[in-house]
TrEMBL record:
Free-text remark on how the cofactor is bound: Binds 1 zinc ion per subunit.
SUPFAM superfamilies tied to this protein: beta-carbonic anhydrase, cab
Enzyme nomenclature, EC number: 4.2.1.1
Pfam families: Pro_CA
Presence of keyword Lyase: yes
Protein name as it appears in the record: carbonic anhydrase
Superkingdom: Bacteria
Single biological process term from Gene Ontology: carbon utilization
InterPro entries per record: Beta_CA_cladeB, Carbonic_anhydrase, Carbonic_anhydrase_CS, Carbonic_anhydrase_sf
Length: 212
């Protein structure tokens, strides 16, 4: 905790002053251009990997960077409500769903009942990926590495498809008023792959830029 307090002091005394004008411009309103939906994993830092500053990203993080299909419910729908807000109130222009290598959330999909006995809400959350688990298990079988990257990438594609169930998003996409992107971040190399809708595959982001 001492390190966190020292970090906060450094921010107030040094970093904030360096960007004081920017924070002054943000004091009454935010106007982010991008909704970034990522995993809660501590190794994934949205502003770091996108080289963005305060006010640019509206960030949603959860276990496994999962986007559920749209629904209106009586329970508390944190991810769904945040997407609703970003699209309808902030009028964001881009949505990035970012997964990553060695995702603990995706790995937990294959955990035993005993491993998840003290995490009933995590277990319930991961049932959203049950169809992916069935498909991957038929192909990867006992190959844990293959199972991991297949699950992580199929989860991203599935999340893109689920985004289209949110009112207005598919229409905005067809009108080119919004862009949808799925990124796969490899922690140990820093490489980012983007899903190519035409080839239905992930390619290095610099190759994606060359094609656009």
């Amino acid at each position: 905790m001492k390190n966190l307090i020292e970090g906060a002091l450094k921010f107030m005394q040094e970093d904030f002053k360096e960007h004081a004008e920017l924070f002054e411009s943000l004091k009454n309103k935010q106007n982010p251009h991008t909704l970034f939906i990522g995993c809660a994993d501590s190794r994934v830092i949205p502003n770091l990997i996108t080289n963005t500053g305060p006010g640019e990203l509206f960030v949603i993080r959860n276990i496994g960077n999962i986007i559920p299909p749209y629904r209106v419910g009586d329970d508390f729908l944190a991810t769904t409500s945040a997407i609703e807000y970003a699209f309808n109130s902030l009028h964001i222009k881009n949505i990035i769903v970012c997964g990553h290598s060695n995702c603990g959330g995706c790995a937990a999909l294959y955990a035993s009942e005993n491993d998840l006995k003290n995490m009933p809400n995590v277990k319930k959350w991961l049932t959203l990926l049950e169809p992916i688990k069935i498909k991957v298990s038929q192909v990867a079988k006992d190959d844990i590495a293959m199972r991991a990257w297949m699950t992580e990438k199929m989860n991203l594609v599935n999340s893109l498809q689920n985004l289209l169930t949110y009112p207005g998003i598919e229409e905005a996409l067809n009108k080119k008023e919004i862009e949808l992107h799925a990124w796969y971040y490899i922690i140990e190399t820093g490489e980012i792959y983007e899903y190519d809708f035409n080839f239905e595959n992930f390619i290095l982001i610099q190759e994606r830029i060359k094609k656009s």
